[in-house]
Amino acid sequence: MRYKKRIITGILAVGILSITTSFKSDFFEIAKQIEIFTTLFKELNMNYVDETNPAKLMDTAIEAMLEDLDPYTKFWNEQEVEQARIQNAGEYTGIGAHVKTTQNKIILREVYQDYPADKAGLKAGDEIIKIDNITLQDFDEDAGELLKGSPDTQVKLTYLRQGKTKTTTLTREKVNINAVPFYQLTDGDIGYIVLTKFNKKASAEVAGALQELKKQGAKKIILDLRNNPGGLLSEAINVSNIFIEKGALITSTKSVIEKYNKTYFTQKAALDTNIPIAVLINGRSASASEIVSGSIQDLDRGVVLGARSFGKGLVQRPKKLTYGTQLKVTISRYYTPSGRCIQALDYQHRDKEGNAIRTQEDNYKEFLTKNGRKVYDGGGILPDIELKTAAYSEITKALETEDIIFNYVTKFYYDNPQLDPKKFYVDEKIYTDFLSYLKNNNFTYTTKTEKSLQNTLKTAKKEGLDKDIEQEYQTLLASIQQAKQHELQEKSEEIKQLLTDQIVKRYVYEKGLYAYYLTNNDVIKKAKEILNNPAEYKKILKTN
User: N or C: which end of the chain has fewer CB within 10 A?
Assistant: First the structure.
């Protein structure tokens, strides 16, 4: 298989990749390269010494072709096309759970309250090992698809929980994926709205929540976009339009392809252009979330709080291919009303490890908001008010990527069945226990500095200098390990916040977590403080 990959990748390098380069100007070159690839593919499959799998070879070819581009340009098979449709539509039929599917394994990441999985007693952390009569260990395709089906059909699940095997039977039903899973009036006159995704329901649900909260007496609004990965561009415009007057520029898109150079203005009369707004963002607020928070910031329509957003300034569009497949392709970059492109990573330029280069702060360009406040491009939306607990650093990302936090929270949940989540927070005792858990589970991650050192040592070996620098190399590695341990303490506030959020959510579900936020979350406390101080609010926005 490795040999096949080399063949395909080589052809892509000299052939298919040139399609992207030449597409706009040289149709003959496109036809030529397609013919070369087609004939090679045919000859390879007809003449190779062992039996080949044409579908797998083509998957390898496609993956290799797209690998040099940005991570958002992807080929979708039929199942992935359907999944995208579900995400945008906001509904599907299944068991009502968010799952992580890996090879021969399904882990429940979240169980939605009052849906089939919850009614059957399933919990986050449960590992499904068998669906009906299909043992997942022997199943090569996407096992997550087996959980879906027609409404009112049954599915039998066998799963592992804390080392014990259990079984249950569920009846599938329609699952609604709300863009606004929670809104509530707090402190008498502050409306709190959580927007978690930009599907087709987003603007309608935000508008409905705002109108209901105003009926209840809301005179100020907190719009929570933390952890919102984005979604539909059209819904980002519509959500902004709820608070921004008709005819205002929200975003513009620019591309080397002329037809994708567009400007997007609000199309309707706003619901409320005067109500004070606090928008909450963090390092996992991306794309459409950044369009909304960026427009509100640039137009001085509200105060933005939290931590710097993700920095995804690229726009994708699905293009239909044959046999029900699609190409989700990056077509343009988007810009906020002041002219900022907040894209953080440059995928056209990469380091020695092949990673996209991040725009350095020294290279950020300055722009001005409507009222003349200074804002910057190149690294996401920087909040007007930054808070440590909202940050999302490299070590926190590593803890999540390796499922360390998720697994610790699962263990904590079963170790503390009687916990009262209403007043819970991760104190030093719990955090010390978490650090012990990290040590016992040999948690480690590789920093960019370590990767650079490793490359330096490789170069030194080629030049015969490795023995001369070995001692210094080991000393530097030891220093980095100490620094990484120190970082667990330095970043303890954001890690504690993440642990607290996930632990509370295990006991009281998503809605319970947002209710908990209203009295316990530092970012919301600060937002309330700003909204309850009109003079400070106006001072931040430089309004009269």
Answer: C
